[in-house]
């Protein structure tokens, strides 16, 4: 299948590691011009070089950006547009909020999670849409969590704020369809990343069991009996953000090996 991504301008946020890096790698593999971002410049440099080596695509650049800073987001989008004169694809991604129960969280935790996991998406889309409107088309994929379909234990911040993302995507699918801008949400289930290891460690400590034991139990609960791989998640994102997708918009997809039971 021709993804029609050769030479396209792609911005992937929070992409120095984990799912963001895996997504950026798949776009680079398809021949796109890819801009990655995170707050850690050293990690970005390392990630950009690694993606170039793996994909043999030299058109991979980076910019430091704190996704809670509106000015930095605007500058990031401007740089992404600068490489080709526009932005064809936006992948919104952000680090997950801290684990914890409702009574563990103070006001600052809620403000931080709102800025990082919802407002940053609003800001990035708002800055990007004019470039897509000028081109007459575009693709946006918002990376969320399986908590958009089914709540997760000890993740009250994610359970509360992440569901706002498909609400935003559904609304924008209606508003932007006349501009041929397709926007969808993709939520990871149990994908083997540093974030998942961190959450598992939190849960294992709470339950007083070894980390390996927790992982074995978790895998038994997944119909496919294993954690997903970042590249498996990335391929789903890339399809929805590609020229091969011409009619899917406003939808929410969970990539989870069948774990989530909600419809």
TrEMBL record:
CDD domains hit by this protein: BKR_like_SDR_like
Name of one Pfam family that matches: adh_short_C2
Stated family: Belongs to the short-chain dehydrogenases/reductases (SDR) family.
InterPro entries noted in UniProt: NAD(P)-bd_dom_sf, SDR, SDR_fam
Protein name: SDR family oxidoreductase
Gene3D superfamilies found in the cross-reference section: NAD(P)-binding Rossmann-like Domain (3.40.50.720)
């Amino acid at each position: 299948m021709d993804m029609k991504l050769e030479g396209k301008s792609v911005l992937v946020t929070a992409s120095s590691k984990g799912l963001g890096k895996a997504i950026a790698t798949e776009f680079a593999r398809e021949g796109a011009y890819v801009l990655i971002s995170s707050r850690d410049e050293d990690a970005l440099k390392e990630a950009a070089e690694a993606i170039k080596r793996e994909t043999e695509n030299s058109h991979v650049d980076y910019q430091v950006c704190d996704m809670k800073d509106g000015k930095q987001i605007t500058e990031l989008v401007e740089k992404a547009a600068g490489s080709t004169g526009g932005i064809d694809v936006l992948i919104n991604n952000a680090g997950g909020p801290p684990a914890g129960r409702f009574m563990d969280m103070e006001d600052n935790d809620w403000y931080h999670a709102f800025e990082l996991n919802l407002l940053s998406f609003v800001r990035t889309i708002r800055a990007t849409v004019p470039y897509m409107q000028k081109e007459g088309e575009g693709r946006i994929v918002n990376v969320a969590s399986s908590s958009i379909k089914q709540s997760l234990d000890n993740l009250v911040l994610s359970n509360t704020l992440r569901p706002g993302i498909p609400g935003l995507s559904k609304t924008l699918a209606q508003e932007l369809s006349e501009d041929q801008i397709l926007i969808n949400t993709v939520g990871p289930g149990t994908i083997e990343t540093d974030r998942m290891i961190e959450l598992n460690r939190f849960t294992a400590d709470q339950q007083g069991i070894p980390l390996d034991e927790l992982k074995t139990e978790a895998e038994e609960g997944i119909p496919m009996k294993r954690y997903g791989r970042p590249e498996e998640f990335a391929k789903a994102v890339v399809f929805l953000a590609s020229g091969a997708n011409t009619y899917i918009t406003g939808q929410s997809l969970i990539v989870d090996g069948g774990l989530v039971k909600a419809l």
